[in-house]
Amino acid sequence: MPRFPSVLFPDGESADGLAEPAFFGDLNFGQVVSAITAGHGDYELDPFFFAPLHEESAVEYRHEVFGDLERDEVHEVLGEFAERMQRMRKRRTLAGKIHYPRQQQRWFLDSVDSYCAAVAFLQEGLDRVELRSRGLQAMREHVTGYLSGESFRALLADTRDLQERLARIKYRVHVQGARVKVSAFAEDADYSSEVEKTFAKFKQGAVQDYLVDFRDPPEMNHIEAQVLDCVARLHPETFRALAGYCERHRDPVEATIGRFDREVQFYLAYLAHVRRLSQAGLTFCYPEVSASSREVFAEDAFDLALATKLVPDTPVVCNDFRTSSTERVLVVTGPNQGGKTTFARMFGQLTHLAALGCPVPAARARLFLPDRVFTHFEREEDPVSLRGKLEDELVRIRDILRDATGRSVIVLNESFASTTLQDARYIGTEVLRRIIDLGALAVYVTFVDDLAALGEETVSMVGAVVPDDPAERTYKIERRPADGLAYAAALATKYGLTYQELRRRIGR
Amino acid sequence: MKVFLLHGDRDGAPDASPPPNRHDLTQDLELDTLFDAMAAEDEFLRDIVPRVVFASLSEPEEIRYRQQVLADCVANPAVVRDLYAIAVDARRVERKVWFGILSRESPEHILHRSVKILEYLVENLRQLRQIAAEHAGAFDSPGFRRFFAMLQEELDDDYFALVGNHLKELEFPHGVLMSAELGAGNRGVRYGLHRVPHRGWLERIAGSSPPSYGFTVPARDEAGARALGDLQDQGLNVVANALAQSADHVKSFFHVLRAELAFYLGCLNLHERLSAKGAPCCFPEPRPGTDVALTARGLYDVCLALRSREPVAGNDVDADGASLVLITGANQGGKSTFLRSCGTAQLMLQAGMFAPAGSLRADVCTGLFTHFKREEDDTMTKGKLDEELARMSEIADRIRPGGQLLCNESFASTNEAEGSELARRVIRALTESGVKVLFVTHLYDLGRSLHEQHRDDMLFLRAERGQTYRLAEGEPLPTSYGADSYRRVFAPATGSDG
């Protein structure tokens, strides 16, 4: 059997034990991860998001898998496989907790049954579809080998036989007062449907459902257990066979299949999130990635954390950016609340998502695989004096510049809130020069317009507003020299009441 | 068993979501007066009537179906009120069959309560059949004929006997017999319920029973008794659900009956009020939407008539084929009243009601909308023109080809040139999209420019000076009669206060 370690890491590394990177808070990346992994809690997917890749080939390996999973036929197979494995684990957990042995044994049998079905389903499913990724192709080979092996075949045969025998058992229970009598089944008409038929003529459409959803505690009560004991006395051999089965098969899940089951959830969870946002008209793409070139761009990119909150009620504003061969630093200026911070976060998120081998929130993109991502955003909660606040900010920026290399990505959202404009311009210029000297790729958000034109390494990006109605934000960040330019629409246009627009809206 | 008195093919659906513009319609057409008169202080009627009125019918055929049922009601008011009383009584069953509130209801409780509810409702069903047997002959409309025939066919004596037996058997005098299989975790699943076989004494002595094992829950074991109850509940679950749903269906039948009759009761109330005033009404002639029509004799504003002690003046209109009716002329000349009378009559026609007119013929529209000048701006967030345009934009979101829009002084919150230009564009887009527009305006520039087009599908009405409240065909005139109003209001010696 070929060695197949992992559908996430071609070299079989593990992300377990990694800590959350420091920039998660600033970039709202924790929110992104929570939104993506919501509903996938059992799999402990978070560490996978802490482990950026540094080589183009590793990113390519994941792009391939994503590509396969984006096709419905492949996606369905893995989705269904995951559901079946979950069913298995749930039953397994139950079997561990249960007190009555006849019930415990059955839960165990049921869990193995789910496992066999899940693995067989996976093999059939993967066989049926075309796979282009190395990761899934290798998994298919592995599963096929495992299924034809002796140990699995014996497990399957044993499980099936016992399930069939138990499924054939039917019985009657007669309750009269405190007396209970259990006997073999006898064919007889169902009285409930007879009653239902009598009143069928009054059917008026949907009504409330009165079926009581019985609190199904995993554990039987002692009356149920007594009934089960009576049933066992009616079928003694079947129940003896069940006890023997549990002795023979103790830990049926194969290690590689267990790892795959968890790792593939990284892809499924991410794609589910992509799908949710795509339905709102947002676009994701596979970025071209490079570990060397800092010529990056993105078109129609957006802040994934913000979009997750806004969709589907509020439209999401998309933005573009681009650096040429000499440009290193996007300097973002413009009015407050104009989307500058969102733009900076978006840049950082895109970089990290690309390094995770994921499709990124943009229509088209080329991104840089950095050695590390550094961020500095203003901290509002620090209860220090203004002077202390400025110093604290400078200390943190200094630390970043000390640790960063020319291969790093730096996202700085400076405030220098306590200084005069003159000081802010001076400090900003100094910091920006250092970043430029370092050669790192950076976004620099500032309220000092002059910094936008510091040199050929800087690109000026400006937050746009509607001049006539400054309360109305466009949240567009545009590449142009720092000034304001937009025009008010005519009132009728604003309300969609022009002749053409009205005709379109009314139809015919 | 279906009521089908409001529609020939479906329930009245009084819970259907009402059109979002109902508040505008109510405010602009002053419909509260109409609804209050129809409700005659019955809260339930007050709730139902607007829902039915706003759920306009769109096919002439449907409208005629309802007109015929209404004609039966007008001819047999006492029988209809009796039917309504039975439906009201049936709705009281919940209060009469009272079992207290349980935190979690068991199938046994549900079953027991449902038996009691059905025992009660069976009596109401008997009363309905009684009325059907006695009075069916006096009703001519397809709606009522079908309704009475259904009661007599479905609810015969055999059926009442069958139901009685079931309700007795469901008290389980011989215990509960269930069947089951082993499901996940070896718990019982697919519980079935069966009749306990009645074995004679001979069989019992012969002892030909299949093998069985059993146990008895000790009297002291309270948890065991509860668990046994739970087990039994598994077997009763399906039948309890079936019976509870059946009870709901029967209740729902009475609910629908009550709601549908409530509308006709409202019509009866209105009919009595108008008759007492000597105000005429007629069953209008609905025309399909393809046949643009509006012809009336003595069309009056029913809400104004209900409020005033004097008889109100009606208008004659001949606007067949007109997709735009532009109304200009003197202040206090009855323009707004006329516009409201058209809107209200249109709603009444499309609800299958009689119309406030000597005669009326109109095409059915796909939706009625109003855009009236608003004096106040509650929000203060927008300018007046902004507010007007925002409302027009909301209308544009919803109005469809075949719709009808009533405009009262729209676009008057800006200067005449700008307002006229806006109005021209909107009117053109609307009429070319197949929307009928009735437009009251002071904007002379608008009226003149439209009149100069000399189009067959535009009709120009003018309110005359002097308080006749009558409108006649006539081109827009350059001077507004605002000066008249001014003089009247500021007159040194007040002759009449209009």
UniProtKB/TrEMBL annotation, chain A:
Nucleotide-binding listed as a keyword: yes
Keyword Nucleotide-binding: yes
Swiss-Prot/TrEMBL keywords: ATP-binding, DNA-binding, Nucleotide-binding
SMART domains: MUTSac
InterPro entries per the UniProt record, alphabetical: DNA_mismatch_repair_MutS_C (IPR000432), MutS (IPR045076), P-loop_NTPase (IPR027417)
Signal peptide span: none
One Pfam family linked to the record: MutS_V
Domain of life of the source: Bacteria
Coiled coil: none
Domain DNA mismatch repair proteins mutS family as annotated: residue spans: 327-503
PANTHER family in UniProt: DNA MISMATCH REPAIR PROTEIN MSH1, MITOCHONDRIAL, DNA MISMATCH REPAIR PROTEIN MUTS FAMILY MEMBER
Protein name: DNA mismatch repair protein MutS
Lineage: Bacteria, Bacillati, Actinomycetota, Actinomycetes, Pseudonocardiales
UniProtKB/TrEMBL annotation, chain B:
SUPFAM superfamilies in the cross-refs: P-loop containing nucleoside triphosphate hydrolases
PANTHER family the record matches: DNA MISMATCH REPAIR PROTEIN MSH1, MITOCHONDRIAL, DNA MISMATCH REPAIR PROTEIN MUTS FAMILY MEMBER
Keywords: ATP-binding, DNA-binding, Nucleotide-binding
Segments traversing the membrane: none
InterPro entries referenced in this protein's UniProt entry, alphabetically: DNA_mismatch_repair_MutS_C, MutS, P-loop_NTPase
Top-rank taxon, per record: Bacteria
Keyword Transmembrane listed: no
Classification via Pfam families: MutS_V (PF00488)
Protein name as catalogued: DNA mismatch repair protein MutS
Source organism: Amycolatopsis ultiminotia
Record domain DNA mismatch repair proteins mutS family: where: 322-498
